[in-house]
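User: Reviewer 2 asked us to show a designed sequence for the structure in our supplementary figure. I'm pasting the C-alpha cells here. Could you produce the per-position amino acids so we can include them in the response letter?
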C-alpha cells in the first residue's frame, strides 16, 4: 500500500492522532480546489492545510523532503506520523465526519487498491495540466497563451491562476466537449466595462 513512516525515536503506531497537517501544492488548481472543499467539511480530527514547500512547512517539518511533498500528497500527524500517497488521502478522509466510514473501507486491501487508483488518476490529471502550464506560450485547452493570458486570465510564468470557471463570466461545461467560453452578452447596454 502507501507509505506511512514515523519520526525517529517515536513509537507513533500506538499514539492517538489528535491533529493532522496536510501539505498541498498551492500552485495546482486541483489541489487548491480540494483544500477549499476540505476546509468546509466537518472534522472529527482537526486538519491544518499548509502549502507544500512553503517556509511554514519547512519551519514545522524540517526533517521532511519538501521537494517530494510537492510531488506527492503528504499528511503529518501531531505525533510525527507521515502519510504519503493513498495513505495520506485515507487518513484525511478518516479525519472528516462524513467520510470516516469511507476511509475505513479504503483501508482494507481491496479498498487500498481503489484508493491507489484514485491517487494515480489525480496525479495523471495533475501532471497533464501542470506540464502544459510550465512555460509561457504553452497550450491550454487548445488555445495559445497570448500576452501572458489564457481566456482573459493572467498567468504568472506560464501557470494558470487556478481560478474557477463561472457561468456569469461566460464559461460553460459540456461533458462531451469540455469547457467552452462565450463572452457574456450586453443586454440593453448593461455591460461591465473593463
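Assistant: Here is a per-position design you can include in the supplement:
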Amino acid at each position: 500500500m502507501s507509505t506511512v513512516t514515523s519520526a525517529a525515536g517515536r513509537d507513533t503506531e500506538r499514539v492517538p492522532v489528535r491533529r493532522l497537517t496536510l501539505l498541498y501544492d498551492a500552485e495546482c488548481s486541483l489541489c487548491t480546489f480540494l483544500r477549499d472543499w476540505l476546509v468546509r467539511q466537518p472534522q472529527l480530527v482537526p486538519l491544518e492545510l499548509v502549502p507544500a514547500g512553503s517556509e511554514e512547512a519547512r519551519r514545522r517539518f524540517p526533517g521532511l523532503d519538501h521537494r517530494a511533498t510537492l510531488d506527492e500528497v503528504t499528511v503529518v500527524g501531531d505525533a510525527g506520523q507521515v502519510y504519503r500517497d493513498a495513505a495520506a488521502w485515507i487518513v484525511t478522509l478518516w479525519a472528516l465526519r462524513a467520510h470516516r466510514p469511507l476511509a475505513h473501507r479504503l483501508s482494507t486491501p481491496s479498498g487500498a487498491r481503489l484508493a491507489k487508483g484514485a491517487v494515480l488518476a489525480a496525479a495523471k490529471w495533475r501532471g497533464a495540466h501542470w506540464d502544459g502550464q510550465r512555460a509561457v506560450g504553452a497550450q491550454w485547452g487548445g488555445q495559445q497563451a497570448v500576452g501572458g493570458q489564457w481566456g482573459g486570465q493572467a498567468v504568472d510564468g506560464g501557470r494558470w491562476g487556478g481560478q474557477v470557471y463561472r457561468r456569469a463570466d461566460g464559461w460553460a461545461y459540456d461533458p462531451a466537449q469540455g469547457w467552452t467560453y462565450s463572452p457574456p452578452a450586453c443586454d440593453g447596454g448593461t455591460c461591465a466595462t473593463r
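For the response letter, you might also mention the following. Confidence is low (pLDDT under 50) at residues 132-162. The longest helix spans residues 109-131.
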